[in-house]
């Protein structure tokens, strides 16, 4: 995206946020939006088909930013240090309180689900391969099913992400009464509880379940 396109998009997004403070999304017209953004209608339609598509861009921007946070902290997460990423996620929501409030109260029901998918995909691409590689290279036994272990890593990451986003959503919808520092510390504490020991216990459960299946088929 060139500089002119970025400037146009930024102006339109700012104008949309300004209008959403005073009226619901379905009452906003392209005419008033382009007037506030100081952009003509033809330019608007060159980028978006309607106001709703521009509204979706706000959510997209949020997901892109959260993905960038994961990428930036990937090496720390690979080494079990999640304090930095949890703090930055809560800071991002706190700093962009206006945008998230407008998204939430204008009929968007998929925001937090999209955030979960974004974080899951980012972790799967940047952290999961490293964690799996370390595990398989350092393990002492060789009688486990690699596919099962891979899936267990995925389950564990998905559980962590789902819990983190749910905690974030609850904090935000309750008015952010606790400080960013407190919530980040709480989140990091919960994440740290789901480490290697939890993985080993979970693997034992998987193996026990597999043994039962084999016993039933014999």
TrEMBL record:
Residue ranges of every copy of the HTH tetR-type domain listed in the record: 6-66
Alphabetical keyword list: DNA-binding
InterPro entries found in the cross-reference section: Homeodomain-like_sf, HTH-type_Tx_Regulator, HTH_TetR, TetR_C_Firmicutes
Residue ranges for the DNA-binding region feature of this UniProt entry: 29-48
Single GO term (MF): DNA binding
Domain of life: Bacteria
UniProt-recorded name of the protein: Transcriptional regulator, TetR family
Species annotation: Bifidobacterium tissieri
């Amino acid at each position: 995206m060139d500089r002119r396109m970025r400037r146009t998009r930024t102006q339109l997004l700012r104008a949309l946020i300004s209008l959403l403070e005073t009226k619901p999304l379905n009452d906003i017209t392209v005419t008033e939006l382009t007037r506030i953004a100081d952009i003509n209608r033809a330019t608007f339609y060159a980028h978006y088909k309607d106001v709703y598509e521009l509204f979706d861009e706000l959510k997209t921007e949020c997901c892109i930013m959260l993905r960038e946070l994961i990428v930036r902290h990937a090496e720390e997460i690979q080494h079990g240090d999640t304090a930095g990423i949890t703090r930055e996620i809560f800071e991002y929501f706190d700093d962009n309180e206006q945008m998230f409030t407008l998204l939430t109260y204008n009929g968007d029901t998929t925001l937090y689900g999209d955030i979960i998918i974004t974080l899951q995909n980012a972790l799967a691409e940047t952290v999961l391969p490293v964690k799996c590689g370390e595990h398989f290279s350092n393990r002492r036994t060789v009688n486990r099913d690699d596919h099962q272990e891979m899936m267990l890593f995925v389950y564990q990451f998905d559980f962590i992400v789902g819990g983190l986003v749910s905690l974030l959503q609850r904090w935000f919808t309750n008015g952010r009464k606790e400080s960013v520092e407190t919530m980040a510390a709480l989140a990091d504490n919960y994440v740290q509880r789901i480490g290697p020991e939890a993985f080993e216990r979970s693997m034992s459960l998987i193996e026990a379940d597999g043994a039962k299946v084999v016993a039933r088929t014999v």
